[in-house]
Amino acid sequence: MKTLNTVAAHVIETERLQLRAPNRGDLETYLRLAGDPRVALKTTGIPHPLREADANEWLARANYGTRRTFVIARKEDAGMIGAVHLETRPDRVSAEAGLWIGVPYWRRGYATEALRGILRDAFGERGLLYITTGIPTGNPAAERVLRKAGLKFESLVEGGFRREGIIQDRVNHGLFADEWEALHC
Fold first, then answer.
1. Which one, of 45, 42, 68, lies nearest residue 143 by Cα?
2. In Å, how far are 94, 132, 134, 170 from 38, measured between CA atoms?
């Protein structure tokens, strides 16, 4: 089994997208797109307001330890439209995924395509057995993306995370490698 710690310059290609490692040139776009409250407040991890120091920390942690972050870029213009990450758990056979897409790129299928790309890589190239993700309640668009990518509802955790001192519920979805294979054979 390959480990995520060996993929510093790993690039994932999909039909319309390229998932690549973030770099300093992405920080301005990251601040603009991820800093939009319509994006940040629908995630469990992007601070709001998003500051330059937060962006620098995001870049520093992007590919550190067990976390692999990929910029989502359109092939047609190579511009950053969002990001997706995969963090391997201590068992080294499962991981948690997360993603966001900038508002100008919503409702075009990019989130689903990027998530499918990271799942294909995680199950196929990395040999992971299970992927999970958690989102705040009240985000039906994210729920649709997760279902379209093949993830299944698993649980609702009351008080599952805290954002800016406010406890919120978390909706968990997951997918096993054999379920992925059954969907894509």
1. 42
2. 29, 23, 18, 18
* Structure tokens belonging to residue 166: 């406010």
Question: What residues form DSSP beta bridges with 19?
Answer: 12, 72
Tens of pLDDT along 96-155?
999 999 999 999 999 999 999 999 999 999 999 999 999 999 889 999 999 999 999 999
The encoded tokens of residue 112 equal 């689903």
Helices (H) and strands (E) in the chain, counts: 6, 8
CA atoms within 13 A on the CB side of 134: 18
Q: Which CATH number fits domain 4-183: 3.40.630.30, 3.10.129.10, 3.20.20.80, 2.102.10.10?
A: 3.40.630.30
